[in-house]
Known about the structure:
The chain is an alpha/beta fold. The chain has 2 domains: 5-156, VC0802-like, CATH 3.30.2130.30; 178-220 and 251-331, Rossmann fold, CATH 3.40.50. Helix content is 33%, strand content 21%. It is built from 9 helices and 12 strands. Strand 7 and strand 8 form a beta hairpin. The longest helix is centred in the middle third of the chain and has 20 residues, at 108-127. The model has no long low-confidence stretch (mean pLDDT 93).
Amino acid sequence: xEENFKMVAKTLFGFEDLLEKELLQLGAQKVKKGTxxxxxxxxxxxxxxxxxxxxxxxxxxxxxxxxKAFNDKxxxxxxxxxxxxxxxxxxxxxxxxxxxxxxxxxxxxxxALKTKDAIVDxxxxxxxxxxxxxxxxxxxxxxxHIDRDLVTVSLDTSGESLHKRGxxxxxxxxxxxxxLAAGMLLLSGWDGNSxxxxxxxxxxxIVAEAxxxxxxxxxxxxxxxxxxxxWNDWDSExxxxxxxxxxxxxxxxxYSITGFDKASSAVVKAKDNIRNANLDEFVxxxxxxxxxxxxxxxxxxxxxxxxxxxxxxxxxxxxxxxEIGDTLKNNYAN
Length: 334
């Protein structure tokens, strides 16, 4: 049986409690909150599961080594102590991302360059060949985090940020991040036990996330790939089993989810995105002006939306928000 290992899920500030709860519900071990991160333990199958199912995680890292470094030489030497042939071949590509909070290191490109040199030199010495850098489509993404003098080297299990769910082909002027939308919904208490409305739905992000929560559909089921699929130990059979087990836990939804927007261009984009996410059965999109609308269905209704703010869109703020309050009070009572 494969041993559990530590992982770190990154999230938005303020979503740590939500992410902790999600991880515990999924079955993570030794869950511990930090700032913008939650660490946990699980096996390879759980790594696949977390990437597929977590709604409020931006990225999941797998730490592989920690050491102390005070200058470029100790950084280089520490990176060289990792046996990189466990994670890379000379014919694969890689890229390095850095996060620095240190007096000793304050230039991310310098740290990335030193790390790259240490990895490449190890391969050259051992094999005579070296893996190349590919910033766009690397086989392996390496993350170097330096906190004062502690260096943590991790593999990025996710690849592109997990807010890129894979269903969005078109966006509007100011689209809301999918992880932010999911977090807002979870904080609102949304669980699929009422009707739902987003009256300024834009490209449909909030209603898409609302439908996936209501039906317990894995958040990242529509992603084309995860970083771990290019790893040497990628297990497609195990991944398929994990996905199948998650899909068995989807649930029926007996209410309505509605999104409308006064801009016809936004409605077209939202319909495309809902179709891409295979959520047409649960979400209805139409063109309408919220300020001229009324509550359409009897029973409880949760309204969540992301109205314009600041310089995000060109509206007169004070009047706009007053009209929102008046519309809710007069047209959506009870």
